[in-house]
Design goal:
- This protein is mostly beta strands and 113 residues long.
- Helices cover 0% and strands 52% of the residues.
- The chain has no helices and 11 strands.
- The strands form 2 sheets. Strands 2, 4, 5, 6, 9, 10 and 11 form a 7-stranded mixed β-sheet that branches. Strands 1-3-8-7 form a 4-stranded antiparallel β-sheet, with no helix packed on it.
- A hairpin with a 5-residue loop joins strand 9 and strand 10.
- The chain is globular, with a radius of gyration of 13 Å.
């Protein structure tokens, strides 16, 4: 069983930046981030494969950047030009080569003045 541990959330002002990280306890093929705002469904933010191919939600393209360090089993999400609508609980996601899925416990990101 792979564990995903997130870090780096918090409160930031609109227009600011924040980086969140997620470290897996084992090898994960595809890693990424989803988010869930109050009263809304969980939605994809960004995904990255072990070969570093990426895909992003339209709402975060050109503002967020996902990257990973395979040696550390860690994925990063750099969030720039943050907006109040980015406020959500951000969940780390992982999928191994057997298509088993894993989730982190979630980390709060709040964008507010």
């Amino acid at each position: 069983q792979v564990q995903l541990v997130e870090s780096g959330g918090g409160l930031v002002q609109p227009g600011g930046s924040l980086r969140v990280s997620c470290t897996a306890s084992g090898n994960i093929f595809r890693m990424g981030w989803y988010r869930q705002a109050p009263g809304k469904q969980r939605e994809l933010v960004a995904l990255i494969s072990s070969s570093s191919s990426t895909n992003y939600a339209d709402s975060v393209k050109d503002r967020f950047t996902i990257s990973r360090d395979n040696a550390k089993n860690t994925v990063y999400l750099q969030m720039n030009s943050l907006k109040p609508e980015d406020t959500a609980v951000y969940y780390c996601y992982g999928r191994d080569i057997f298509f088993r899925e894993y989730w982190g416990q979630g980390i709060q990101v709040t964008v507010s003045s």
